[in-house]
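Good morning,

Attaching, inline, the backbone tokens for the sequence recovery test we're adding to the shared suite. The designed sequence is right after.
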């Protein structure tokens, strides 16, 4: 939502697909998780990433390139080493709603047009590797293993991968996997931001943003140094309809269980 709002404003641009994890992992594709340490941002990797961002900036004549690959929340230090002048928008959201939304993505059928669009940004040297990985995942998903809400039945993985994602698949049902996934991402980002006070970070509360998007977009643009570009039309499509939707769809028992599982993080962010 926020990426789409920002890229409605002249001078802001992004890739024409939802995420570019293939690019972020170039040079480190053999690392099984998305938790890339700072040391993985070698000069070659950094040069490659900077070239990709520069390419988008030139293509769309943009002064600011916006990027929202979710897995970056697990590797802020890696991103910071690659882009020392980057600014960060950290979005707080009720983890229950976030987990319920993620569950929908895990269940979503294969979107071939979107997959084809995303594949355009796989580095040429990595196409064979990811092509084989994609085919293997599709074969496993067709094998019919387990139910959709069973931890053991999750044949592949959607979204950010913590180091122990394989163990999470074996030990938890899907709703708990999504909740832990949210928790790991949030805690990893909070830790990195706390340890690196030199990073420029603006925190947003999702529920506040959708309630008064004009006010909060003004603050975001001021943080980014472009308050003069404020345009209320950019947030005309922002809605509050997703606030509390996850809690309602899951029901009392799952919500109680998920809250107990991640109470410390929920409390830290003001949701418990």
């Amino acid at each position: 939502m926020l990426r789409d709002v920002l890229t409605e404003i002249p001078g802001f641009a992004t890739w024409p697909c939802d995420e570019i994890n293939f690019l972020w992992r170039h040079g480190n594709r053999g690392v099984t998780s998305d938790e890339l340490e700072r040391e993985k941002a070698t000069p070659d990797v950094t040069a490659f990433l900077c070239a990709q961002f520069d390419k988008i900036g030139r293509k769309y004549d943009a002064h600011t390139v916006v990027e929202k690959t979710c897995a970056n929340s697990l590797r802020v230090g890696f991103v910071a080493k690659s882009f020392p002048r980057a600014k960060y928008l950290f979005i707080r959201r009720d983890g229950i709603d976030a987990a319920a939304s993620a569950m929908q993505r895990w269940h979503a059928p294969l979107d071939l047009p979107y997959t084809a669009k995303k594949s355009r940004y796989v580095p040429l040297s990595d196409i064979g590797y990811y092509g084989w990985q994609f085919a293997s995942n599709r074969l496993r998903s067709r094998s019919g293993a387990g139910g959709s809400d069973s931890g053991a039945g999750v044949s592949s993985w959607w979204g950010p991968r913590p180091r122990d994602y394989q163990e999470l698949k074996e030990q938890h049902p899907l709703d708990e996997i999504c909740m832990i996934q949210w928790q790991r991402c949030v805690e990893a980002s909070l830790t990195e931001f706390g340890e690196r006070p030199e990073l420029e970070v603006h925190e947003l509360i999702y529920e506040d943003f959708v309630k008064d998007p004009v006010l909060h977009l003004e603050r975001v643009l001021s943080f980014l140094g472009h308050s003069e570009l404020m345009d209320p039309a950019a947030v005309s499509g922002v809605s509050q309809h997703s606030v509390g939707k996850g809690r309602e769809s899951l029901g009392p028992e799952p919500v109680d269980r998920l809250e107990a599982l991640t109470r410390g993080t929920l409390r830290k962010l003001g949701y418990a």
